[in-house]
Amino acid sequence: LVDALARTDAAYAGGLAKYVGRSRELLAASARGDNPFEGFAPSVPDGETLVFGDAGFGAAERDGLEAARKTGFVLVAGGLGERLGYEGIKLELPVELATGKSFLELYVDYVLAVQARAREDSGDASLVVPLCIMTSDDTDAPTRALLEAEGDFGAEPGQIEIMKQDKVAALSDGNAKLAVDDDDRWALLTKPHGHGDVHSLMRSTGIAKKWRESYGLDYVFFFQDTNPLVLHTILPALGVSAKRGFSMNSVCVPRRAGEAAGAITRLAKAGDDDLVINVEYNQLDPMLRAATGDGDVNDPATGFSPYPGNANVLVLGLADYVTTLHGEDMGVVDEFVNPKYKDDAKCDFKKPTRLECMMQDYPKLLRREVPGAKVGFTTFERWVAFSPAKNALDAARASSAKGEPAGAAGSAEFEVYAAHATRLGLATAGEVAATRTLSGVAGLFGGPKVVLLPSFALTQADVDAKVTPGSLDLDADAVLVLDGANIAVESAKVSGGLKVVNKRADASVVIRDLVVSNGGLAHVEIPDADIPAAKPFERIRGYKAVDAGVLVVEVAEPGHFLLSKDGQLTKLADEAEL
Ligand code: UGB
Questions:
Q1: CA separation for the pair 111, 326 (Å, rounded)
Q2: How much is the average pLDDT of 405-419?
Q3: 447 falls in which pLDDT band (50, 70, 90)?
C-alpha cells in the first residue's frame, strides 16, 4: 500500500496532498451543484473558416509548410478502444484496407514526409521533426512493441519519444477518502486521469522545454489516435496559427445543434479576460439557454450551430506553452469531477470516482500565465477534417439508421477514400451520386477507393502538380494507391486496382497511357453469424477486403521509369525521354 501511495504521489504534479486538496474543493462544489459557467456571457469567438479549393486554403497550406519546419507533434494514445469494441491498441488498427497501413504507420509516415519536405525547402539535411506519443499503463507496452517490431516505421533513433501517463487515486466519498479494493484493503484503487495529462507530462519529461530551447521549435501539434483525416488539417491550421499569431488554435468542423460534440465558445465575465474554450455539448445548451433564451440551436442561414464543433486537435504556440507549463500550475489543467451519488446528502458514491482533465482545457492555464494570449479556431469542412473511428459496429449501425455519422472504423475508412477522391477531382466535397451500404452501415462513399499517402502529397498544390487534371478514369469500385514523392500521373484508366510505390529519392515514375484491368479489391460483408470469428479489425467493420489481383508496381532501382500500356514499367535512358 505504501509503495502504491508513493507511486501515486510521485506521478501527480504537486503530489498526493495537492490531489486530495483539489479533490475536496471540487467534490464540495459538485455537492453544492455549482455551475462552472455561472456569470459568463457566451459568444462566438474569432476564428478562420477554410474552404477546400479556395485560395485561402492553398495560402494557409503554403504558410503551414514553412511553420511545419518548426513543429513538434504529440499523439495522445493512452485510451483503450473499449467503445470501438477492440481489445488491442487502436494505433495498430489498419486505417483502410486498400493499403492495410496502421494508424501509427500513417502518422509516422506523415511526420517523415513533413521532415523530408522541410529538409528540402530549408536546405538543412539534419533537420528533425519530432514525434512524442503519450501512452498509459494500458497502451504503453504494446505501443513500444509495435514500434520496435517495425523499426519505428523508418524514423530516426530518438525521433519518437514516448511518455506514459499514470493513473490517479480513486476517491470513495465526498471527503476525498482514497479508495481501496473491496477484496483487498492493501490495494489502492487508481483510475485514468484523462488526456489532459499530456500537458503536465510535456513539462515533467522536459520535452516541451527541449523542443523550444534546444530544437528552436515554434509550434506543437496535438492529435488523437484514430482520426486519419486530421492529417489534411495540419498544414493549413499551422498556417492560420502563424498568420493570426494564435497561441492556441483548435481544429473545428461545422456542428449541428444538439450534436454530441463540444463547441468552441468565447466566455466573458466582468473583471476577467475573456476565455475562449471548448464547452462540452451537455453544458452548452443550458448555458446558451440561460444567456439567450434559445439554447443550442442552428443558425437558419447555414443550418449549423454558430459555435464551431471541436475536433480536439490543437496547435499550440510553443513559447507561450513553455511559459505556461513552468508556471504555478505545473501544467496540470483544471480538473473536474463527475461522481454518481448514492444518496441525497451527496457524500457517498455508487462507485469510486476520480479527478479528470482534458487537454482542450489548456486556455484556462494559458490565461493565468500569459494574459492576452490569442486563442482561436480554424473550421474545415467535415469531409476534409473529421473521420473518427470511435464506435463499435452495433453503435455504428444504430447511428446510421438514424441518419447520423457512424463514427466507426468502417465509416472512417470510406471517409478517407472520399477525401482522397475529392482531392483528385473524382468526387465533390467527399461525395459522388451513389453511396454504398456495408454490414448495415449506410451512406458510405460510393466512388473509387483512392489513397494518396503523405509521401506522395502533403498539400493540394502537390496533388495538382503531380496529377494532370482529368487524367484519371477510375471505375466506381477501383482502387488507386499512390505512395512516394516522385510519381506523376498523365493518363490512366483503372478498372480493378493499382498501387504504385516509389520510395526512392533517386528514381521517378511517370504514368502515361496506362490501362489496368483486374479483379481489384472487393469489400465483402461478413454475415453476422461469422462476425465473432472474424479477425478483430474486420469484426469492428463487419466486412473484409478480398484482393482479386490488384496490380502492384514498385520501383526498386534508381532511374527514370515510364509506367504504361497494361502495367509495363520501362526504364528510360534519361529524364529527357519522359
Ligand atoms: N486519451 C489518452 O491519451 N488518455 C486518456 O486518459 C484518455 C484518452 P477518446 P473523449 O473526438 O469527438 C474527446 O476517449 O475523451 C486519448 C474530447 O474530449 O477517444 O471521449 C485517446 O487515446 C471531446 O471533446 O475521446 O472525447 C484518444 O486519442 C471530443 O472532441 C484521445 O485521447 C471527442 O474527443 C481522445 O480520447 C471527439
A1: 27
A2: 97
A3: very high
